[in-house]
Every structure is written in C-alpha cells, then in structure tokens.
Model the fold of this input.
Amino acid sequence: MIKATNLTKQYDNGFVAVDSLNLQVNKGDIYGFLGPNGAGKTTTIRMLNGLIEPSDGSVTIEGKEVKYENASVSKLIGVLPESHGYYNWMTGREYLKLFAELYGVDKKRVKSRVEEVLEWVGMAGKADILIGQYSRGMKQRIGIAKTIVHEPSIIFLDEPTLGLDPQGQKDIQSIITRLNQEQNVTVFITSHLLKEISEICNRIAIVKQGKLLEEGYLDELIKGYRLVLKNENPTLEDIFFSLTTDEVGGVSDVQSNKKGNKGTCIIP
Ligand SMILES: Nc1ncnc2c1ncn2[C@@H]1O[C@H](COP(=O)(O)OP(=O)(O)OP(=O)(O)O)[C@@H](O)[C@H]1O
Ligand SMILES: [Mg+2]
Done:
C-alpha cells in the first residue's frame, strides 16, 4: 500500500535526516513510526506525502508513484501534519466544508459528509463555535475530521495526541482504531507515547538518525526480543530503549573514558 525504497533526505545544509529507508505498509495496518526527537519521522512523512522532495529513493502509494508537489495521490491520502495552522476565524463546520470542497468531495455529498465526520470525532455539538475558541483537544479532533473528510484510504498522523490530556489521548486512539476497523482506513502514525502505540498498532518501525533500526509485526517483535533482552514479557518500551539508548554514561563509555583519562568519567 505504501512502499518506500531507499528513501533519503539530505537538507540543503548537508544534514542527512533520512538515510536509505525501506518501508512497506500493508493495507489495513496501523503502522507506528517511532524514534527519538530528530530521528527523521516528520521528514519521512513529508516525503511519503510528496510535500518535500527526496534526495534519493522513491515512494509509491497503491502502486502510484508519489511525486513532489504533484497531486496524483492526494485523493488517496489524508494528512494530519505535526504542526498546522487552523483558520481561527471559521467555525469547525465551515472549516470542514471548505476542505471537503477543496478535496473534491461531490457537491451533493459535502453537507452530509461534514456532518458524518463531525459525528466521527465527537464534535457535532461544537461545530458552530469559532476554531479560535477551541481547546487543543477540540482542534485535534477537527484536524482529524479534516484529514478524513474526503474518505481517504490511508491517513498519516504526525503526533496526533501531542499535548492532549489522558482522556483526549484515549478518545483520539479510539477514533483511530474505529476508523481502521470500521472504515478500513490504513493508518501511518508517529507518537512518542509507546504505550499508545503498543495498544493501537499492529506493525511498527523504529528509526534513529534517519536509519531504520527495526521493523515488523509488534507481536512477532515481542516474541523475538524475549531472548535478546532475556525478558519473558518485553514491552515495546523495552525494545525501543534497547535499540535507541546511547551508551553515553553507560558501562562502555565509562570504561573507555577511564582508559583515556585516568581518574575521570562522564556520567550525565
Ligand atoms: N529544513 C531543514 N533543514 C535542515 N535540517 C532539518 C530541516 N528540517 C529538519 N531538519 C533536521 O532533520 C532532523 C530530523 O527532523 P524531523 O523533524 O524529521 O525529526 P522527527 O523525528 O520528526 O523529530 P520529533 O520527534 O522531534 O518530531 C533533525 O535533526 C532536524 O533538525
Ligand atoms: Mg516530528
């Protein structure tokens, strides 16, 4: 469904944010894309969506090549970016109507589709309030409604629960799961909340410094890491930390430091 081959992004300043990434997301997956801050997740999502141009490699979505600033896949996908501006002077309902029209929803369907997505995200009762007066959680819900208003088959959600309270996080997770189960929407999601990811995703990838460290079905990874981590029930958090934690301050650094600088060791 989504296939990235050798995907690479070197920014103009020479920094390689994504390095030869190969990914495959299958139909029906809720695919968690994980990594520490600066790992290259947002950069990857933007390349998968055709919003920035890869320096190398290619992306296909449902077999169609994603080209930079080309709308060829825009009807198939919905995107909730990491940070996005809302039109604060519009009501939620006006905002969704605008995007339904922009995304080419059939004119006769616009009104009913807007009502449907308002119900989906639990905002029907607040649809006539100005977005500028919404809380962060309400804005995220309207953002998700905008992402699905044109009935895309794949949605990309870049940290959709960032800054939400525990109830807000749960609500968004349940919207995502229902979209996947009831509407067959394939989901590509980034989040730093590993518990959230392990609850909703069937497949995950872990990246660091632009490189893919691990990828696979979560239940299989957990089985596979039992031996590696010498732990009968490793969690996603255990796997994540075992792969992404630097040795700084760990035994190896202290030892090497001792070797070079007698009497000092760096422990953060
Ligand atoms: N326009 C740019 N020019 C140069 N470097 C950039 C640019 N945009 C991002 N980067 C760098 O690329 C790296 C990856 O950034 P990216 O935003 O993709 O990370 P991320 O995994 O989404 O991080 P976070 O978890 O904090 O959202 C970072 O080191 C960042 O500073
Ligand atoms: Mg990011």
In short: The chain has two domains: 2-76+152-260, 86-151.
